[in-house]
Write a structure and sequence with these properties.
Layout lengths: L1 E3 L9 E7 L6 E2 L4 E6 L4 E5 L4 E6 L5 E4 L3 E6 L17 E2 L33 E2 L5 E2 L1 H10 L17 H10 L9 H7 L12 H16 L2 E9 L1 H13 L14 H15 L5 E3 L4 E3 L5 E3 L1 E3 L2 E3 L2 E2 L7 H16 L5 H4 L4 E5 L18 E14 L5 E14 L5 H16 L7
Parallel strand pairs: 15-19, 19-20
Antiparallel strand pairs: 1-8, 2-4, 2-7, 3-6, 4-5, 6-8, 7-9, 10-11, 12-21, 13-14, 15-18, 16-17, 20-21
Helix pairs in contact: 1-2, 6-7, 6-9
Length: 428
């Protein structure tokens, strides 16, 4: 039985094998961990699905392997296994992208069935039918949405004219692009007389660079900014934390942060402006019943946005506990794909760094993202013409104009502002 590189998420095209738990000749039982994969988002263990004996490991530790490639072979109980053919050789590359003297010449490309896709259990398997009777696979639809490709302009190469992933990839490669950037050697030449260190890109940094570049180039962003008074929120937060029951060792049962209120307020605001609780899906807009809010978490060398599902239904204490737990596992690269994929909006908070105001890049296919700055004591005019000082923070809502128009974005931001300035409304 061939062991394939699994599809660990909708946007994961390859992974690095960082460890083999089994060696050639070892007996395998269903559920035994075979190898460990590092993707751009997480590190995961891959278990065996059948019993037998590991007769061949085709991919060494440290190799980068495309999804669907054969990485190992497990024989049945008799030990019989078909000899590998040259066409079945697994294509890999070193994680550093540099050739190694110990590695053989590049293997011929893997000849996979172009209509066979590796899917996760949660994925919608069925193809969709577009106007005019054009049929497109789910993977092709997602790739087209991310790349801003009009599916109606693509000629499918699949059975009966079906549009498959390779058709979208070809259309993307021929799509007009800006002038090419200088390559690494050209840039290094500018600093030939200055000392510097070269830092190779890992999977996470490569993916961040690619996806954010695509986001800026393909999504028509616009931004709405508001100053929000948080005096009542700070008082409520202090009272809640002081009243939190403690365990026997004196540890509080919970400790609310300002960001917990922000996540809850955004989740409820999305319910009050339901048309903004959406995602862009290429040839349509998806509108969600629940507010699944991502929370950006900074990692060493990158960031990830785990998602708090149905945040509008959860208490502030529950949101706080879940956010802390997700952030801890994100730092350890232990999140599962379903914990950071999807989501209808996201929060990026740089207030803890003293940043007063900033704009954030939308994480596609989401249609909005909220950038939160630091709280400051500011001078404002009162209704009677006097002056007072209040605690304020500046928030900036980034919107995808394809799915959220200006008035709708303003409605969402106004709902968020009202909830933050009247935080008791989040408790009922």
């Amino acid at each position: 039985m061939d062991v394939l590189m699994p599809q660990l998420g909708e946007t994961v095209a390859e992974g690095t094998i960082t460890h083999w738990f089994k060696a050639v000749g070892d007996k395998i039982e269903p559920g035994d961990n075979l190898f460990e994969i590092e993707t751009d988002k997480a590190t995961m263990e891959v278990p065996a699905t059948a019993a037998g004996r590991l007769t061949e490991i085709r991919v060494p530790k440290g190799a980068v392997v495309p999804v669907g490639a054969v990485v190992a072979v497990i024989a049945d109980g008799s030990g019989a296994v078909a000899a590998p053919s040259p066409a079945a050789t697994t294509p890999t590359r070193a994680a550093s992208d540099a050739p190694s003297a110990s590695q053989p010449a590049a293997a011929p490309p893997l000849k996979l069935d172009p209509f066979r896709e590796v899917r996760t259990p949660e994925r919608n398997y069925g193809p969709a039918r577009l106007a005019g009777g054009i049929v497109v696979t789910p993977l092709a639809r997602r790739l087209a949405g991310e790349a801003g490709i009009d599916l109606a302009r693509i000629t499918g190469s699949g059975p009966h004219g079906r549009i498959v992933a390779r058709d979208v990839e070809q259309a993307t490669s021929t799509k007009a692009r800006p002038a090419a950037e200088p390559d690494a050697e050209q840039i290094k030449a500018l600093y030939a007389e200055r000392p510097f260190e070269e830092v190779p890109l890992d999977n996470m940094r490569r993916t961040i660079a690619r996806r954010l570049t695509e986001s800026v180039q393909t999504i028509p962003h616009f931004y709405l900014t508001a100053d929000v008074e948080i005096e009542r929120l700070l008082v409520l937060r202090a009272e809640a934390n002081a009243a939190a029951c403690t365990d026997k060792d004196g540890t509080p049962a919970f400790r609310l942060s300002v960001n917990d209120f922000v996540v809850k307020a955004l989740a409820l605001a999305l319910q009050r402006a339901p048309a903004a609780n959406a995602a862009w899906a290429g040839d349509r807009i998806l509108r969600f019943k629940h507010s699944d809010v991502g929370v950006a978490v900074a990692l060493d060398g990158g960031l990830i946005t785990p998602v708090i599902r149905a945040a509008e239904t959860k208490s502030l204490a529950a949101i706080s506990a879940e956010a802390r737990e997700l952030a801890a596992r994100a730092g350890a690269r232990k999140l599962q794909p379903h914990e950071y994929q999807g989501g209808s909006s996201a929060v990026s908070n740089l207030g803890m760094y003293g940043v007063r105001e900033f704009t954030a890049i939308i994480n596609p296919p989401q249609a909005t993202i909220l950038a939160v700055g630091a709280a400051h004591r500011r001078q404002v005019e009162t209704a009677d013409g006097g002056v007072k000082f209040v605690d304020q923070m500046t928030v900036t809502l980034g919107c995808d104009h394809r799915a959220v128009d200006g008035a709708l974005g303003a409605e969402l931001l106004a709902a968020f502002k009202a909830l933050i300035e009247q935080p008791v409304a989040m408790l009922v």
